[in-house]
Amino acid sequence: MKILKTLALSIFTLGTTLSYAQKSDLGAWYMYFGNNKISKKLNWHNEIQYRNFDAGGDLEQLLIRTGIGYDLTENNNNILLGYGFILSKPYVNGEKTENIEHRIFQQYITKQKFGRFNIQHRYRLEERFLEDDFRMRFRYLLGFNIPINNKEMLPKTFYGSVYNEIFLHFDSPVFDRNRVYGALGYVINKNMRIEAGYMNQIQENKNRGQIQIGFYNNIPFTKN
């Protein structure tokens, strides 16, 4: 509990510091990810991301995703069909605007382990229904979780997390964006962990930094 209190205090301090960064190009994303077993082979993915231009008061995007996945092999090689609702509030010529996107996506995740390195490959295809447009996009993520004070991702383990994700359009221009992420995480128990880190995104030849705080919940809804 002492470790959790220290981590919570660090996150609160980080958020307070960010509150003075509104005029900078540093944003903050607060994220929840659920991946819950509903049968031996099926899982329910549920996700909420609250993305801000600053620490908390200037909403950039609200993203809600859900889907049903199927394990081709036990706890690995998962295919998933999902839906996303995205509310965006960008600035256009200095004025706050609003648009809504509905998104269907299909993804395949496979995992590998080499020593302490827990590796994940995620391939995702998106069909994006915008208010006045339709687009398709492919995403590939390569991620690593590396335990620090234990050899495995056991409860009470601190770990480092890094990933790179590239986004590609099906039309011109092909390149959409690239994200590079690094974080420190803590395994609370076998079904919950928390991360706090930094992501840099390159889009339209512009770099934008994001502080990210994420909570992961894998509590199963079945005893099997």
Automatic annotation (TrEMBL):
InterPro entries: DUF2490 (IPR019619). It comes from the Bacteria. Keywords: Signal. Residues 1-21 form the signal peptide. This is Intein. It comes from Chryseobacterium geocarposphaerae. The lineage of its organism: Bacteria, Pseudomonadati, Bacteroidota, Flavobacteriia, Flavobacteriales.
